[in-house]
Amino acid sequence: MKAVLLCLVLSFSTLVLVSESATTRLTYSRWINLLRYAHSSLQRDPTAVEDRQYNRTDHVQLIADSILKHFFNDIFTPSFTEDGELVHNYDRVPVDFLIMLDSSASIGSENFLKALQVLSTWIDILDEEDFSSDQLRVSMVSFSEPDQVIHEFAFSPALNKSSVISYINSTEYHAGSSTSTAQALWLADTIFSKHARPDAAKVMLMATDGWSHDVLELPFGVLWPAVRLRKLHGVQVFTLGIGDKINHNELEAICSKPTANHLFEVDDYDMMLEVLEKVKENQIFPF
Q1: Residue 98: beta bridge partners?
Q2: Beta-strand (E) ranges in 146-253?
Q3: Which of 41, 44, 112, 263 lies 20 to 30 angstroms, CA to CA, from 223?
Q4: Percent of the chain residues topping a pLDDT of 90
Q5: What's the Cα-to-Cα distance from 265 to each of 95, 111, 142, 161, rounded to whole Å?
């Protein structure tokens, strides 16, 4: 059966290579990936324990390494002296960081508190000096049903790290019956266009546990506001999917590219806390 699959993939890949149509060129990389998968499946021992068991510890470490590299290290890159002392280089581009938190009913009050803890831990990893020097400003939106898409607090030079954490932890759970992801993205568009600093790097993190319910109510659903955020406003968009009901395709459509650097998925909120603890343990710069 595997041999038949491999032959089919090879045959189709040959057609892709000889065709010059735009549609075929777009599918070329996908078929190459499928070919690689078919080849790797032939090499894999189906009885190997490591292939049959899910290793949570390895998964946590993998996500932690990715978040550390592609979020914390790539965005907040400090300088060091020859002796290894941290130098706060305030000539760096300032950062405006918007947090988007799903507060729909599917989360539940217990998990919502864990979600707040996740975000508080995320902020706590950042450098207090970046807040006090106005190098970093943070804002937050919570979203559920259409009338519960709320701008919880705005970008402000007056907010230090403890103030931001306090605002996050005091966020109320609205328990909306639906998830207005597209509407939340349009609010993010407004926030970045009207309230972000023109000279600041713009970063957004959207955390959600499910599917949007307004994709058919607004033109182009989540796609149009997501493209505006990335292309028009230059926002680096990260998406965080939590749980077993996430819409991977939707999160991929929202986040910046490459997807592997901007889309993170975990089994539950406890796992996300484990990931952030690993980030704190493994960070290469002292805070």
Answers
A1: 139, 204
A2: 149-153, 201-208, 235-242
A3: 112
A4: 46
A5: 24, 16, 19, 26
